[in-house]
UniProtKB/TrEMBL annotation, chain A:
Keyword Transferase: yes
Protein name: Actin-related protein 4
Keywords: Activator, Chromatin regulator, DNA damage, DNA repair, Nucleus, Transcription, Transcription regulation, Transferase
SUPFAM superfamilies (UniProt xref): Actin-like ATPase domain
Assembly and interaction partners: Component of the NuA4 histone acetyltransferase complex, of the INO80 chromatin remodeling complex, and of the SWR1 chromatin remodeling complex.
Species in which this protein is naturally found: Aspergillus ibericus CBS 121593
From TrEMBL, chain B:
Gene Ontology biological process: chromatin remodeling; DNA repair; negative regulation of transcription by RNA polymerase II
Name recorded for this polypeptide: SWR1-complex protein 4
Region annotation (Disordered) ranges: 1-30, 339-388, 499-578
Pfam families hit by this protein: DMAP1, SANT_DAMP1_like
An MF annotation (GO) of this entry: transcription corepressor activity
Family of this protein: Belongs to the SWC4 family.
Subunit-level organization: Component of the SWR1 chromatin-remodeling complex and of the NuA4 histone acetyltransferase complex.
Biased composition (Low complexity): 339-360, 368-388
Residue intervals of the Myb-like domain: 149-219
GO cellular component labels: NuA4 histone acetyltransferase complex; Swr1 complex
PANTHER family: DNA METHYLTRANSFERASE 1-ASSOCIATED PROTEIN 1 (PTHR12855:SF10), DNA METHYLTRANSFERASE 1-ASSOCIATED PROTEIN 1 FAMILY MEMBER (PTHR12855)
Length: 472, 578
């Protein structure tokens, strides 16, 4: 078989209709053409808002990280539970996701684009009857994803935006758990999605979620960040403060544990961006910290438990060599057992580092990953539980925490010693990060999926409630 | 670069004269595409080489004649959709049947194509090839009101809820896991808003088993209504039976068990796996034991080879055998690998020191004279030395055992060994088999009386000996009884004869008849002949007892048949005794 020749469509049942797949998340929004292996457009869901010349302006995409405009504040249209809160802004962010890279901005109404401004009262009569406005997505079907607990109202609102604002000829709303399972090549699976704001466990059977088994809790990547902040606050000898890059004009190297020697940039109060901007950039440093330092205790038991030969796991963890990390201001330190502690509360609620200032309340035992899995399995029929356990799909960017799947495997084996537990977690980071997008890309390029689309005509006939009937 | 240059570079001594082969080599055909110098470097017997021409290949000629086939974005509809949604995908344009020869006509055809394209773009006639995959699960026909009221009424299920269930089943194509997950029946969906204060019956939680039971009942009933069971096809009838036999309680208990099985603790799982392992081991052992035993028995049944070995018993014969073996060996091995002296030296006897070990008594004695002189010539001196050392050690270690030790180690001395392998138990078994059936039965009866099993449980040497003794004494006993019976019967016969004689004397005194006399002469004859067979003694005794004098002669002439009948006659005598 020649690898340079793509497989014929008959082989994989593909039939491309140039559909666009949009996978909105709390942290990032992914968009791309169906049939490709990674989303072409990856933008943060956060957007910046500032006022210039008395007018409100927005910054989308990666640009929000770049310029500390005066008064720039950062917002997120999504709620912490993964459900859209600000529909107007969500629409704008999503629009940006596909117009910036995929479709390009469509020519708007020539009357409004500023080129044809005419003085008041001189509006030419010929232009009035002409229907000029072309919708953004008029020639691409759109597949969107949603969390398994999305309420009906949000689903209806989504299809309304797609059909009425963007004018897509066909639309479908799929659960991201199902899509992640498809990306792993499974129609039935137990999908464990570790996202930024949420972790969710979704049992999928024959390509449909089992609603009674869907579990989610807020212990996602942002929670880990808050734990890291708590750790920094309680750090000895002195608490660590995170100074983002934009506040530093120069720095000199210092030894580990020594106070930083850096020149800071200062902004006058009227030039300074909003505090949320600083938080956003601090989060970037923290995600770098998560990628480089943080490690999940691989098991077999909890970090606080005693090991097999009497030595407590914490002692064992201490004996592992530490990992150094340098902050943007030059401060650097080696992190030993602490790097295990910040994620331990994903598995063991008691191990959470207390932080009264955090937005996250202390986790309850029911919010930890093992408990979520247990509850999810208890919510489905007993006959398919062993099958689900043999097809555990791990997805979401926060699942890339070092050693996460090992620990998960250990926990599952301890909880269910009888049935065979098999975790399927792609080693490729892109496949793990964009699991649900890739599943959507596969689904939307299948020839057999054509009959599933909700067409514009159907939407006009039945109204937005059709999404409940068709996207089951 | 010629070979001489390479030599020069590598400081190899140049060859004295130009090689005479060189010209010949040139004559050897040089493959195309390889330079002469390169070919000269390859020496004799060059491996086959693929020659890659460093040249742009281009397209095959026939390809340039083809036209690029155009792809078009074509609209299509999927037959599985009811709303006629038109989607567009790229598709290869259909080629005209033959390639036009003239340029002018090509232009025309292109124009035609274009018009065809525009036509097809407006009316998408083409149906998607995937619509055929739109299959639905077969669900039973819907009941009418009348049918429902007559056949399908249930106390547990309202009509509305049944409808809801049937809708759900159809919607989810009988995927029960999903149906049970999505089942959410509101008893009064219309009324909830109008009278929210009214008492709404508590929402009932339906288990999957309840739903299945209801659905199968309805499906089976509908099937039966459509075709009465007598008219159903086989598949239909089977389905009907299966659906009727659905037992919700059993299913529920099965699921409970499955949940238990799923939620076992680690210890239980470990224990189970250990037990399973043990079971596997036991069955495997049993299997092994059986096969081994079978093999042993089959080996015993193989006839002992009776080939003539006399020609190998002399040293001459043995050396001849060795020579033939070596010849066979040599022809197999290549001479180049084996050295000249190595080819002759190794003899099977000297290479394998095993027969030298004293454990096998008879063979080693025959072999040692051969092996000892062969050892020094052996190339593998180390092996030979080791063998010799082992020999010495073995000789030193030979010591006489005391009788107690012999018994302890189970050493036995045989005067004469029977050829082949046999079981000790078999030998013991043979003892219980007498020449005749009757004797065997008697032996068995005696053993049974003594509560000794016929087949020994633990046939050790001592037990076998004891058994032998026992059998011997039983035989003696039987013999003695036989003799005793014989004597007894003889006494009886003689007494009877005596009586007869006395009576005859009396009669003779009265009548004096000659016929009786002949009978009298016949009488002792059976008694004498009966001595060689056990049965005949019995017979004789019988004869003596009952005084059947007339059949006696006949019986002696048919010994075999008499012996068969002896059992029954035995019984009859016993009865008589009683």
């Amino acid at each position: 078989m020649n690898p340079s020749v793509p497989p014929s469509t008959a082989e994989y049942g593909g039939d491309e209709v140039s559909a666009i797949v949009l996978d909105p998340g709390f942290s990032t929004t992914r968009a791309g053409f169906a049939g490709e292996d990674t989303p072409k457009s990856l933008i943060p869901t956060y957007y910046g808002k500032y006022s210039s010349d008395g007018q409100e302006s927005f910054v989308f995409g990666d640009d929000i990280f770049v310029t500390p405009r005066p008064g720039l504040s950062i917002h997120n249209p999504m709620g912490r539970d993964g459900i859209v809160e600000d529909w107007d802004m969500a629409e704008k962010v999503w629009e940006y996701a596909f117009t910036s890279r995929l479709t390009g901005p469509k020519p708007g109404n020539p009357l409004q684009n500023g080129l044809n401004d005419v003085p008041e009262g001189e509006l030419s009569t010929e232009m009035e009857g002409v229907e000029t406005e072309e919708k953004l997505l008029s020639d691409s079907p759109l597949l969107m994803s949603e969390p398994g607990w999305n309420p009906t109202k949000a689903r209806e609102k989504t299809i309304e935006i797609a059909m009425e604002k963007w004018g897509t000829p066909a639309f479908y709303l799929a659960r991201n758990g199902v899509l992640a399972a498809f990306a792993a090549g499974k129609a039935s699976a137990l999908v464990i999605d570790i996202g930024a704001s949420n972790i969710s466990v979704t049992p999928v059977h024959d390509g449909m979620i089992l609603k009674r088994g869907v579990q989610h809790s807020p212990l996602g990547g942002d929670y880990v960040s808050s734990q890291i902040r708590a750790l920094f606050k309680s750090n000895t000898p002195q608490p660590i403060s995170i100074t983002p890059h934009y506040l530093i004009s120069s720095k000199t190297a210092v030894d580990a544990g020594q106070p930083p020697q850096a020149k800071y940039r200062t902004f006058t109060p009227e030039r300074a961006p909003d505090a949320s901007y600083r938080t956003l950039l601090e989060e970037r440093t923290l995600s770098e910290f998560k990628e480089c330092v943080v490690q999940v205790w691989p098991g077999p038991n909890k970090l606080s438990a005693a090991g097999p030969n009497g030595v407590s796991n914490e002692e064992l963890a201490k004996s592992n060599p530490g990992r150094p990390f340098e902050f943007p201001d030059g401060y650097n330190q080696v992190f030993g057992v602490d790097r295990y502690r910040v994620v331990e509360s994903l598995f063991d609620a008691k191990a959470a580092i207390p932080d009264p200032e955090s937005v996250f309340p202390a986790p309850t035992p029911a919010q930890t990953v093992p408990e979520l899995i247990k509850n999810a399995l208890n919510g489905v029929d007993v006959d398919i539980r062993p099958h689900l356990l043999a097809n555990v799909v791990v997805t979401g960017a926060s699942s890339l925490l070092y050693g996460f799947t090992d620990r998960l495997n250990q926990e599952l084996m301890q909880m269910f010693p009888g049935p065979r537990v098999r975790i399927s977690a792609p080693g490729n980071t892109a496949e793990r990060k964009f699991g649900s997008w890739i599943g959507g890309s596969i689904l939307a390029s299948l020839g057999t999926f054509h009959q599933m689309w909700i067409s514009k005509k159907e939407f006009d006939e039945h109204g937005p409630n059709i999404v409940e009937k068709r996207c089951k | 670069m010629a070979a001489a240059d390479v030599r020069d570079m590598l400081d190899l001594p140049a060859e004295g004269q130009p090689r005479p082969h060189k010209k010949q080599k040139v004559v050897e055909k040089r493959p195309e595409g390889i330079t002469r110098e390169l070919f000269a470097l390859l020496g004799e017997r060059a491996p086959p080489i693929a020659i890659n021409e460093n040249r742009y290949k281009g397209r095959p000629k026939w390809m340039s004649k083809l036209r690029v086939r155009p792809w078009r974005m074509t609209p299509f509809v999927n037959g599985a959709r009811s709303d006629g949604l038109v989607l567009r995908h790229w598709q290869r344009q259909h080629e005209p049947a033959k390639v036009p020869a003239l340029e002018g006509s090509e232009m025309e055809i292109e124009k035609k194509e274009e018009t065809a394209d525009t036509a097809s773009a407006e009316t998408p006639q083409q149906d998607s090839m995937f619509s055929k995959y739109n299959v639905k699960a077969r669900v039973p026909n819907r009941y009418t009101d009348e049918e429902y009221n007559r056949h399908l009424k249930s106390d547990d299920w309202t009509r509305q809820e049944t409808d809801y269930l049937m809708d759900l089943v159809e919607e989810y194509d009988l995927r029960w896991v999903i149906i049970a997950d999505r089942y959410d029946y509101q008893p009064h969906p219309v009324d909830t808003e109008t009278n929210a204060n009214a008492l709404v019956p508590a929402k009932r939680y339906r288990t999957m088993e309840q739903m299945k039971a209801r659905y199968y009942f309805i499906a089976a009933s509908m099937l039966a209504l459509e075709h009465p069971p007598s008219e159903m096809s086989e598949a239909e009838f089977e389905l009907h039976e299966k659906m009727l036999k659905f037992d919700a309680d059993r299913e529920r208990s099965r699921k409970e068990l499955a949940a238990l099985q799923l939620n076992r603790t680690a210890d239980e799982v470990r224990e189970e796996s250990i037990l399973l392992e043990e079971l596997k081991r036991i069955t495997a052992n049993e299997q092994d034991f059986i096969t081994e035993r079978r093999e042993l028995y089959s080996r015993l049944e193989v006839p002992i080879s009776v080939g003539n070995t006399t020609m190998y018993q002399s040293s001459q014969g043995l050396s001849q055998l060795l020579q033939t073996l070596l010849q066979a060996d040599k022809s197999k091995k290549r001479r180049s690998i084996l050295g000249p002296e190595a080819g002759a030296a190794p003899s099977p006897a000297s290479q394998t020191p095993a027969p030298n070990a004293p454990s096998s008594t008879r063979d080693s004695r025959a072999d040692t004279p051969n092996a000892a002189p062969a050892a020094p010539t052996n190339k593998k001196a180390a092996a030979a030395a080791a063998a010799a050392a082992a020999n010495k050690e073995a000789q030193q270690s030979i010591r006489t055992l005391t009788p107690a030790e012999e018994a302890k180690y189970g050493v036995q001395h045989h005067d004469r060994l029977a050829p082949g392998v046999q079981f000790r138990s078999d030998r013991a078994q043979k003892l219980t088999q007498a020449k005749s059936n009757v004797q065997t039965q008697k032996l068995a009866a005696a053993l049974a009386e003594l509560e000794v099993p016929l087949r020994l449980v633990m046939p050790t040497e001592r037990v076998c000996k004891e058994f032998e003794k026992l059998i011997h004494s039983v035989n003696l006993l039987l013999e003695a009884r036989k003799v005793a019976e014989k004597v007894e019967s003889e006494i009886r016969v003689l007494e009877a004869a005596k009586e007869e004689r006395e009576r005859k004397v009396k009669e003779a005194q009265e009548k004096d008849k000659p016929e009786v006399k002949s009978e009298q002469e016949d009488q002792p004859l059976p008694a004498v002949e009966a001595t060689d067979g056990v049965e005949n003694i019995d017979d004789a005794a019988e004869g003596g007892e009952s005084g059947e004098k007339t059949g006696e002669v006949e019986r002696t002439s048919h010994k075999r048949s008499a012996s068969v009948l002896s059992n029954t006659s035995d019984k009859s005598t016993k009865r008589q005794r009683k």
